[in-house]
Design brief:
membrane; 654 residues; two-stranded antiparallel ribbon; Peroxisomal Thiolase, Chain A, domain 1; 2 domains; alpha+beta; Farnesyl Diphosphate Synthase; transferase; Polyketide_synthase_type-III; nine-stranded mixed beta sheet; 13 strands; transmembrane helix; Thiolase-like
């Protein structure tokens, strides 16, 4: 049969705009989105299934008065019936081919319910309560469930939060549906249909709608607060304001004159509600589907051997008989601001004959070889890393959700590396994506976090485990030049582990959002901080000019990228050395009290290279107070090159 313009008109395809909110809501809330399937699902539901349902209803009812979307509907022909059959079959086939079986099965159930609602043989719509419940269930909770099946490729998990959202969706339809019938009482009665709206009366319909929307709001509130996304609920309320305003105006009009319960006012209500709710859920899609990155669960670990700075100084002093060198060692040690450091080496407080790593003589000769140092690194690095990782709250139950692993180190290398060792010992997902930041020095943690941030912003459900482990003390060298006088008195061992994810959690008082990163390489400091390999270990260059370079360049660097120190209330600065921290504060005119955590970590642990800034940041985050919400945190670390890496964080509502 030929399909004429009136047949297409009775499909009421534009009316799908009014039915789009629940699909958009589902898209914004789906834990996983398969974008190709989501697009096909949207097209199938809104351009095939809904029009087929509208067309079949028009064919059966043969309406002469106004219906939803058409003020003066044309009379249907037999071609409309066949077209609706074709659309339903096409929808089912496309769902099976391009989406998934569950979605196709849901479509068949929806189509069956739609036909049962309208058909002359069953005619559910003629029963006030049964017809109402059919619409509420299938256009509410079932449509949300079906949309999730199409969008994510799997069934909605029926936990407490999702039961709340399904109830909210159904009460949303329960509020809207009687209003769409309020102008059709006479037409429905002529057709033998008694609607719930007719039973309630004009004023009762408005009162019932208000009650349903209150219940809808209650369940949406429970859903978002259960998922710890309470702020989203309040965003929705903003979009509800125009809907409530027009509802109130229309109700007052109907209160005065029942003739105001007409087609045109109903369509105004539909347009206001659809525009506001579609806009609302598009905003939620932007919020939820364009992921951000959040930092959480920083945990730290140090080896079992802790030494007072005096003990380590004495060990160094005993390695030489030169009085001038011994005097320099004491001077440097007194100015470090360090009271304690940790090491995987047990020798530093022993007599030479008891040494286990160094050769058993006071002169420490011959020195351990690079191979011996690397064997010690391999023996201890994985265990120390695990010690930090396993302190992450709930790690055993959440580790299967970790999608990426980034390991950081500059004090040892072996293969298979630290990343593979951790995967094996922690029984992480063997398909986890892994990478390593190696040999990049003290600011490598920020470089790793920059990679984690990029991952989370490109993968909506990413959870990245970052592990920084350094055994600096295994590279203790029997050298007495200025570089080694400083480095032997400065460096210790430690590890830090943290999670970065695309969704906030409640690990800290406030969620910690990563705002951005900035970098600068000072080529005039190329040789002032560097690592080199040698037969006896890693050779460190750490000149006394490093603090000067940082002092002279940190201010211009921040100015160049538009960052103002006064905008930051909290500071996590890598304690590369006491003078570095002092000069950093002076350069930015900061009260040294703001760098209290930096000085504390330096005093209690020394410089542990890459994990050190995370020790500082952990202390900062654990001191958060309620009034710190929306405060900014500035993080900085310094590495070979000479390179400056900074990271900006913000306390936000979880």
């Amino acid at each position: 049969m030929p399909i004429d313009r009136n047949t297409i008109k009775l499909l009421r395809i534009p009316f799908s705009f009014f039915l789009a909110p629940l699909f958009l809501f589902a898209y914004s809330q789906a834990e996983t989105v398969v974008h190709r399937q989501a697009l096909w699902s949207f097209l199938i539901i809104h351009f095939l299934v809904y029009p087929a349902s509208n067309g079949y209803n028009s064919y059966v009812d043969r309406d002469e008065d106004s219906i939803g979307g058409l003020e003066k509907p044309p009379l249907p022909t037999r071609s409309l019936f066949y077209l609706t059959i074709f659309l339903d079959v096409a929808a089912t086939v496309l769902a099976l081919v391009f989406v998934n079986t569950l979605f196709a099965f849901c479509l068949v159930l929806y189509i069956g319910a739609s036909r049962a609602y309208s058909s002359r043989q069953i005619r559910l719509k003629k029963y006030p309560v049964m017809g109402f419940l059919t619409v509420v269930i299938f256009q509410g909770a079932f449509t949300y469930y079906m949309s999730i099946a199409g969008i994510s490729g799997g069934a909605l998990r029926l936990d407490t939060a999702n039961i709340f959202v399904l109830l909210g969706c159904s009460f949303q339809i329960a509020g809207a549906y009687p209003l769409t019938q309020v102008y059709q009482h006479e037409q429905d009665l002529r057709d033998g249909v008694v609607t719930l709206s007719y039973k309630l009366g004009y004023i009762g319909t408005f009162a019932f709608t208000a009650a349903m929307f209150v219940l809808c709001n209650v369940f949406y509130y429970l859903y978002f607060t259960t998922r710890e996304l309470g702020m989203i609920f309040y965003i929705i309320q903003v979009f509800f304001i125009p809907i409530v305003a027009w509802f109130g105006i229309w109700f007052s009009l109907v209160w005065k004159d029942h003739r105001q319960a007409n087609f045109r006012n109903t369509m105004r209500m539909n347009w206001v509600a659809a525009i506001c709710m579609n806009s609302c859920f598009i905003v939620l899609i932007i919020i939820n589907r364009i992921p951000l990155s959040y930092l959480s669960s920083i945990e730290t670990a140090v080896p079992e051997y802790g030494y007072a700075q005096e003990t380590l100084t004495d060990f160094y002093l005993r390695s030489t008989d030169d009085l001038n060198t011994r005097r320099k060692i004491r001077i440097v040690a007194s100015k470090t601001g360090i009271e304690k450091r940790y090491s995987v080496i047990s020798d530093f407080d022993k007599n030479p004959e008891e040494f286990e790593f160094f050769n058993r003589n006071a002169a420490l000769m011959p020195e351990p070889t690079l191979s011996e140092r690397m064997r010690l690194y391999q023996k201890h690095a994985t265990a120390l890393s695990r010690k930090a990782i396993e302190q992450i709250p709930g790690f055993e139950t959440s580790k299967n959700h970790i999608t990426h692993l980034i390991t950081v180190t500059c004090t040892g290398l072996f293969a298979p590396g630290l990343d593979v060792e951790l995967m094996r010992e922690l029984k992480l997902n063997p398909a986890i994506e892994r990478s390593s930041v190696n040999f990049m020095g003290c600011n490598a943690a920020i470089l790793a976090l920059k990679n984690a941030d990029a991952i989370c912003k490109s993968h909506a459900n990413a959870k990245v485990l970052v592990v920084c482990t350094e055994l600096c003390s295994i590279h203790f060298q029997k050298r007495y030049n200025d570089d080694y006088l400083l480095s032997n008195m400065l460096f210790g061992d430690g590890a830090a582990a943290l999670l970065v994810s695309s969704r906030p959690d409640d690990r800290y008082l406030h969620a910690v959002k990563i705002d951005g990163f900035n970098s600068m390489v000072l080529h005039n400091g190329y040789s002032d901080m560097a690592w080199q390999l040698s037969e006896t270990g890693f050779i460190m260059n750490l000149s006394s000019y490093v603090p000067d370079l940082i002092r002279e360049n940190i201010g211009p660097m921040l100015k160049a990228v538009g960052l103002k120190p006064e905008d930051y209330k909290h500071w996590a600065v890598h304690p590369g050395g006491k003078r570095i921290v002092d000069d950093f504060a002076a350069a930015l005119e900061l009260d040294k009290c703001l760098l209290g955590p930096t000085y504390d970590v330096l005093k209690n642990y020394g410089n542990m290279s890459s994990p050190t800034v995370l020790f500082v940041l952990k202390e900062v985050l654990e001191k958060a107070k309620p009034e710190h919400l929306d405060n900014r945190i500035f993080t900085a670390a310094f590495g070979p090159g000479l390179s400056i890496e900074t990271m900006q964080l913000r306390y936000v509502q979880a």
